[in-house]
Specification:
Layout: E1 3-5, H1 6-22, H2 24-34, H3 39-54, H4 61-75, H5 80-95, E2 100-102, H6 103-121, H7 131-146, H8 151-168, H9 192-209
Antiparallel strand pairs: 1-2
Helix pairs in contact: 1-3, 1-9, 2-3, 2-9, 3-4, 4-5, 5-6, 6-7, 7-8, 7-9, 8-9
The structure holds adenosine-5'-diphosphate and magnesium ion (2 copies).
Organism: Microcella putealis
GO biological process, one term: glycerol catabolic process
Keywords: Kinase, Transferase
């Protein structure tokens, strides 16, 4: 596969919606250990709202990012909403008014989204957040593309790196978000946002594998 179309971008989020809905109780269980037990319901509600809005198919990636981002900001009802929302808003703004993206353009748009999320949440790597899954995923995607991999293989590398990043949050002490209120007691649990981000990259790999 050479380019990413709006259809791919919509299918990506339909696959993500399916995962957060199917695994909502797992995400909420993770959040009950170190948060307020709502991450699964937050994400399932947000992604259902997103797919409702996307039934009116956007014509360009900027419009897609705006619709997805604004819907997440307004419907998730947790810290994760504005963070995922900013990610998609910035992804769309970086891509612009185009109907498809080359692999490198898509990677750059994802990177811009991640930078927006970092600026909004001010988390750093190792703070036990979704950043710990997304950072390694994007690094792996960029590295694979630089090595000449196609998008499907690069997305598979990103998925594996996101899963490893999610698992690596388990021993960490949280320094951002609700989990940070627990201090040392936050160690020993996987971060719920890192777990949902790993699902975002599983969904991407599935859709790009075709
Ligand atoms: P809330 O904590 O408001 O109930 P959620 O439960 O939906 O929101 O989301 C919690 C997740 O949000 C955490 O597991 C973590 O991954 C992520 N998170 C929280 N604060 C930040 C932050 N400042 N930067 C990045 N991610 C964060
Ligand atoms: Mg929560
Ligand atoms: Mg909450």
């Amino acid at each position: 596969m050479a380019t990413i179309t709006i259809d791919h971008l919509v299918s990506w989020l339909e696959a993500f919606r399916g995962k957060v809905a199917d695994q909502a109780s797992y995400l909420t269980e993770l959040d009950s250990a170190i948060g307020d037990a709502d991450h699964g319901t937050n994400m399932a509600r947000g992604m259902t709202a997103v797919m409702g809005k996307l039934s009116d198919k956007p014509e360009a990636v900027d419009a897609y990012g705006k619709t997805v981002g604004m819907t997440l900001v307004s419907s998730v009802g947790g810290t994760s909403g504005p963070l995922y929302g900013t990610f998609f808003l910035r992804l769309g703004a970086a891509a612009g008014a185009v109907a498809e993206l080359e692999a490198g353009e898509f990677a750059a748009a994802l990177r811009a989204g991640f930078e927006g999320l970092l600026a909004r949440g001010k988390a750093e790597p190792g703070d036990k957040t979704m950043v710990d899954a997304m950072g390694p995923a994007l690094d792996a995607l960029d590295a694979a593309l630089a090595d000449g991999a196609d998008l499907a293989h690069a997305a598979a590398s990103a998925r594996d790196a996101a899963a490893a990043g999610r698992d690596a949050t388990e021993p960490l002490v949280a320094r951002k978000g609700r989990a940070s209120y627990l201090g040392e007691r936050s160690a020993g649990h996987i971060d719920p946002g890192a777990a949902s981000t790993a699902m975002l990259f599983e969904a991407l790999a599935e859709v790009l594998e075709g």
